[in-house]
Amino acid sequence: MRAVMRQWPTGVAVVTTRSATGPHGVTISSLLSVSLEPPTLLVSLSRRSRTHQLIMENRSFTANLLATGQSTLAAHFAGERPVGESEFTGVGWSPSPRSGNAVLAGALAAMDCTVTGTVPAADHTLFLGSVEEVHHLRATGEPLVYAGRAYHRLAGP
Ligand SMILES: Cc1cc2nc3c(=O)[nH]c(=O)nc-3n(C[C@H](O)[C@H](O)[C@H](O)COP(=O)(O)O)c2cc1C
Fold it and tell me: Which residues form the pocket of ligand 1, taking CB atoms under 6 Å from any ligand atom?
């Protein structure tokens, strides 16, 4: 399954939420637009991830859609950073006025969500989020794409 799904291209997002020590973020590709009426998103998180536990507690997350040129940020929030380095060291962000979750500088857009449902799925949980606020940071930017274990940009039609 891993070998097959490597060939499936996705966008890349950093989901942020709050922790006792400040903002927390994680790189994900499992972002799905579920419905527009009402606006609802889905993200799938491993039960082993720290973010999973925090979102369960906060019932709130913000999905930051990454732009071309933000692959270093994607790797950073997937845990590829020096041991002991604070998560948000050198990362540009501002708190969402509504939730306090981190809105990342340079992202295409960020969607602030309240968790409306959780569905256990194998070793993951599907988090359903009602979109409460949208930050249109870069309406004309290009998305970062992940495929074949590498980051890409769209080559155009
Ligand atoms: C491109 C990419 C997409 C990822 N997508 C997901 C995802 O959808 N769900 C998930 O649980 N982990 C995903 N991961 C793995 C997490 O980023 C990684 O396990 C992270 O270290 C978990 O951090 P945490 O324990 O602080 O939450 C992805 C990693 C990469 C590089």
Answer: 12, 26-30, 44-46, 49-51, 74, 78-79, 146
Ligand 1, atom 18, lies closest to the CA of 78
Locate the ligand 1 atom nearest the alpha carbon of residue 12 and give its number. Answer: 1
Q: Residue 82 forms beta bridges with which residues? A: none
Identify the domain containing residue 113 by its residue range. 2-152
Domains of the chain: total = 1
In the block, which residue shows the tokens 């991830």?
49
Structure tokens at 17: 């939420």
Q: Is 86 within a domain? A: yes
pLDDT by residue (tens digit) across 66-121? Answer: 999 999 999 999 988 776 677 898 999 999 999 999 999 999 999 999 999 999 99
| Structure-token pair, residue 109 | 């857009």
